[in-house]
Amino acid sequence: MLISGGQSATLTGFLLFVDNNTIKWQIFPDGNRTENYDENATGPIITLKRTK
User: Fold this and answer.
1) Distance CA 30, CA 22 (A)
2) pTM of the predicted model, to two decimals?
3) Over the stretch 4-47, which tens digit does the pLDDT of each residue have?
């Protein structure tokens, strides 16, 4: 990820492909990622759905 001024940043997380139209993206802004995707972990979960 590029940030203005040519700096870069890394956002740790997981992508869970639920089906052909849905992805769940769990992010860990503090960098402390769990071993596996976990709905009960502290990282926020963003659900992405394809639109027709």
Assistant:
1) 25
2) 0.69
3) 677 777 788 889 999 999 999 998 888 788 788 888 877 789 99
50, 41, 31, 23: CA torsion to nearest 10: -10
Q: Which of these, 39, 3, 2, 30, lies nearest to 14 by C-alpha position?
A: 39
Position of tokens 């990282």? 43
Tokens linked to 47: 């659900």
Query: Who contacts 25 (Cβ-Cβ below 8 Å, separation ≥6)?
Result: 13, 14, 15, 16, 45, 46, 47, 48
